[in-house]
Amino acid sequence: MKNLTFKKKSKFIEFIGEKFIAVNAFVALAAVLLIFIFIFKEALPIFYDEYIQEEVTIEKMIVKQAFAEGREAKFSWQPNSDNPRYSLLPLFIGTLKASIIAMLFAIPLGVGGAIYSSQFASKRMREIIKPAIEMLSGIPSVVLGFFALIVLATFLQNTFGFTYRLNSINAGIALGLTVIPLIFTISEDALTSVPGSLADAALALGANKWQVTSTVILPAALPGIAAGIVLGFGRAIGETMIVLMASGNAAIVSSAFTDSIRTFSATIASELAEVVFGSAHYSVLFFLGSLLFLFTFIINMTGDIVLIRLKEKLQGGK
Amino acid sequence: MHKTKISVDNIVDNQTFIPNYPIKMSIRDVDFFYGSQQALYNIHLDIIENQVTALIGPSGCGKSTFLRTLNRMNDTIPGTSLTGTIQLEGVDIYNDFSDTSMLRTKIGMVFQKSNPFPKSIFENVAYGLKVNGIKDKAIIAEAVEETLQKAYLWDEVKDKLDKSAFLLSGGQQQRLCIARALAIQPEVILMDEPASALDPISTSKIEDLIAELKKNYTIIIVTHNMQQAARVSDTTAFFYEGVIIETGDTKKIFTKPIKQKTEDYITGRFG
Ligand SMILES: Nc1ncnc2c1ncn2[C@@H]1O[C@H](COP(=O)(O)OP(=O)(O)OP(=O)(O)O)[C@@H](O)[C@H]1O
Ligand SMILES: [Mg+2]
CATH assignment of B12-116+188-266? Predict the structure, then answer.
């Protein structure tokens, strides 16, 4: 037999390749960190600058404030008033209402679609459904916002007789459209990665297709589906363009979903361009940004951790 | 349900069954296709009750495919088709069983790779009962214990019934899968290389279990291990390229096979 001579692998190229990838990872990490530091730094004066604190403190953002002595104290977001007030509550409620509607709309459709596509659809049907839903995520949110503003709002008002054309339901549904593909894709992945041998075992024990799905596949994929929902929620909270266009932008404290709303993200987007650099209002907007960053960061982390756990679990570990 | 008795004209080729052995399943003229690709040709076989029938043959010859026609597991693969008849005690399993899930409660299956559900040991065994409509907790608990006893697994797991099945060893997991199949009291058990991924000790435990189970069940087992086929089975069918070359008494097949191909295979000249 002929002697084989193997080519020596270049230590140098290996070294460079490894370092190059490592550098890329660190650059991305550093960028995230720097962005956060910058945003937080701009919000910081709220905590120490006396001049700014006359106008706004953390306490003032949380507790009811009155316009003037003797007037009723309220939670209000009035940054351009003679006596500016920056209550977070109306924005928080607005963000929450829009996200809740978005999730109520997107979870059944996203998860249901994923179950249908992964378990019940024929191969051809699946090849149509999957890209079609995933294409939704490719639609620019400004287009969806425009659609919600012009078409959806009119339709909903005519159908349900809402007092306000632009409200949390209208914005939430449009927001839901951007969340569906995310929930669908992650849920579908979780469902299809449940080993086929489990389905076979259940079928061989006399389970029917529906039982296999509900008692074996769904429970095994549940953490993945939950992660998809959590990540979808993170997306809904951060999404800006749609709520800016379709929500009515009224910062009011109300439990009615048919009222107009205003979210954190839309507030930043609409006010930051006109704010006086370095003013209290400016710092507050960056404070909102920090909060938003923190929320979505925590939510996404949670989602990712759940997904990693799921993978470990399905591969046999405890 | 009446049992078909074998009659003299039913004996084909070199089948040397003694008349009056009760036949549990009879397979006649079965052709099987994956799409347009044929995997089984004109299969003709009788499965005798309370015996172990071994299916042997080189890789890709259609043993698993054949096994999966017997509980209609192939129905789950799109594009497959079957012609011919397969009967369970005289009932055509493709035409007279409207409900495949009913058929599968009578004909259980154990897979090559142990595949416990990501649930507790108890829930694994109880699963078949629950999906088939048994709700009474006491009945289920009793059946689970009884079944685990039958699978000789009870002593090893009785203290950790609520623990994940993944905590068991590979051999225990496979015996759990056998127990899971036994829980719904099938009449026939199909096993596709049930010990191929196990160590010798676990393998011999499974073989002992099979020998014990055949008193109450009819067993059909696919194996690549000639010694195993010789040890556990009463009847052997030799498959080659989708055809049954030879069937008969296991001792005969392994000592005096009629066909040259069979001899070549069992003596290890190919495969
Ligand atoms: N799902 C499938 N789709 C198409 N062809 C298949 C499928 N499963 C098996 N086949 C083909 O059918 C033939 C028989 O395969 P089968 O798995 O039954 O063989 P086997 O005897 O069990 O082999 P092994 O000993 O390796 O398990 C092979 O040619 C195989 O490629
Ligand atoms: Mg096989």
Answer: 3.40.50.300
